[in-house]
Batch of 3 targets.
Target 1
Amino acid sequence: MKSTPRRFFRASIFLLLVMICVYFFLHSSFFQVDTITVSGNSTVPKQDIIEMSGLVTGINLFAADENLVSRAVELHPMVKQAHLVRHLPRTLEIQVSERTVWAVVPANDEFLIVDDEGICIDKSLQFPSMELPVITVEPIPQRVITGQAVESQGIALIRKVWAGLSEQERGKISDFHYTVSSKDLIIYTVEGTEIRFGKDERLDEKLSAMSQVFQLEQELSESGQEALIYVDIRYKGQPVVRTSG
């Protein structure tokens, strides 16, 4: 029994020595980073991402702070997410997910190019040549900088509507108009019909009503009858329809 404390002491010393050896091994030149790679980028240059990360060759593989690197790289307006991955023994990889162009928001004398979260990723003095959803916001966004969100709540509603439409139906839409104060959405068709969509509620019902509006537009156009002025689908029950006749 007297030998038990002695064995425990020896085991503790041995464990401590092992931990010290492991510590010095992990912090030795064996894990000195000689390669930094970037993956997932197609728009943002590799060197820009590395510079933003603050990583340099020569540091220890385990000294890089994953959270700091991710937050630093995500400051770039085109980067949606960033992750740091370690590859033994000497390589660090920055994995990025870039933001992609989704819609255009006219704002005073320029056009804001936003992704599907409403983040401004670019600005242009000319309307983009790409076929994108057009979103007008009331009040008009002022002094927006790249990386800033442009009415994210309204963009989220419009994204839901867009996702629920077929490709053919999307082609029948001219633009979306979102009012910030009332959180109401109005959709204008290429035929000039004003669809009063309202708030983020009863989406399936409203999307079904929109399909009927597109069908009605086509029927009126083919028959040469009066055109639709507006269709109000904000409330439960039958939509309120007004024509030019």
Target 2
Amino acid sequence: MKKISQVLNWLSSLKIAILLLLLIAISCAAGTIIPQQESEQFYYDNFNKNPFLGLINGNILLLFEFNHIYTSFWFLFLLIWLGIALSVCSFRRQLPKLKSALNWIDYKSPRQIAKLSIAQTIKTNNPSKSLDKLTIKLKEEGWNIKETDGRIAARKGVIGRVGPILIHLGMILLMIGATYGSLNGKTIEKFLAPGRSIDLLDRNKEKGLTIELQKFQIERDPKGRAEQYRSLVNIIEENGNSKVKEISVNYPLRYKGLTLYQADWSLAAVTIQIDNSPKLQIPIKKIPELGEQVWGTVIPTKKDGTDPILLTVNNELGPVLIYDNDGTKLISLSPNKEAEVKDTLIKIINIIPSSGLLLKHDPGVPIVYSSFAIILIGSFLSIISTQKLWVLYEKEKSLIYIGGLSNRNLSGLSRKLPNFISLLNN
């Protein structure tokens, strides 16, 4: 039993809790620096030549699961350890303090009151009247009173003892919610062009929600720099009911546990017309070799598929740059403009942008939000000081002994004491 008690004391020590919090904070910081959930080859390519902190290469990083820190075995172990430490601390320290605060302590001896943090002795000729006045005053100020023959015990702010327990409970729920969300949450990143949709499956692998992009707009400043992205999405339920909502950067949509973010933008296709052909919507892809934001495609100018040209564009407003197969720039065409390229009439109808949507389903969010509420309530209650007061009348000497203590804000109780003494003197 002694060894068990030592282990429990060690688990609930403040030093261990601070050390665990420090390790968790460092781990979270590392998770923001090291890219998460990438392919194994990504870590080999990026960290074998340039190890993290000069020590951790791609092999070590993958071995210790730094590629998914928040769901790694050691990070979950730290959270579980901290949760156990907080639980043990609550049961061994905070609950006994609450129980002690709820129990009435009856001081029957003047010597007991004299040992309190604040104590005074008053001589009075009418103790019954003085005690009645003090009792009424204490009740008016919200004190709980317990009267015994010639003695008064009063207390106030006992609810403040609940605060630390609620904070511990909230922190444990926060870790449970965050862990549950990390292990069971899903994140989908998808680029959609207007008119396209994505189907979301439920747990039974059946279609649940359909998200259709109706309109996408990029707002730019006078210099052409993107300032805001806006998407008009239609949320279609399985029963056919639908709701049209707008999302933009920093203004996500939350719908039945799903959070839809406006994350990025891209270019999906360019619509062109070659000679007298129908309008052709040709998909375009990023060409990183030509720049960070350059999209393009190669199309033939002859019916037999020969003599190709390269079309490139860097934003939805154009222009479209056309290059020969040897890299020579032939012409620049804006939307709704046409020109003859290699004896072929080419007209640019429009450039179709696509919206980068980030969909997150985190089942731990309700638990996390509840934990925040509990922590806030606990923090507020922890501010409330628990104050206790005892008054004892010694009939033989016509003396009244008054004393009190407080777990915090002892000076506040000492400032109140002269007012109580004045009632006893009258």
Target 3
Amino acid sequence: MARPDIAAGNVKATAPAACPVCRAPAPQRFLSVEGRDYWRCGICEARFLDPSQRLSRQDEHAYYRHHENDVDDPRYRRFLAKLAQPLLEKLDPGRQGLDYGCGPGPALAAMMRDAGHDMAFYDPFSHPDASPLARTYDFITCTEAAEHFHQPADEFDRLDFMLRPGGWLAVMTCFQTDDARFADWQYRKDPTHVVFYRAATLRMMAAQRGWSCDIPVKDVALMRKPAP
């Protein structure tokens, strides 16, 4: 394994012009490990892979085919309940929702339907029909998807457009908390994971759009668009 090197002078990639998460200029050099270069934003605290080193769309799709997210797997449902339970406590009955980045098995959409909500779902690889993106929703879920976003600021703007006033955006992604362990962090080693968020990152993204942000448990953020 290559030794991680945080020394700025040893990161060879050209600095991106802006942070892809909050659009702040001049991200800082962070770390080079296993042939990959990472940057950090001093404003929103996100860490992200150098854009030139992302997988191609074809390779990314091929990697996703190895994921096994069975809609009926009780263990997977328990994992998703970490987000579903606090979100359901916020929702009135019979709301309309979108599972954004649902993957091949939209288990969370099934769980929300079981709870009485009407659900649509979208995934650029597994469910690429874009018609759900032309509608608006009372809530949107985004579980284990935000770390794949190549342009998070643009993606969150799209989610804002689809979210009705007073609506909820529920995001689940493994929060990055310890720079010293970043090189050996299993979440980093997934080649399709290109952006890593902290709780502070998601709070800032919410604030930029005028949303509130609650962190009910680690790795889950519930953001609310203000009602008129």
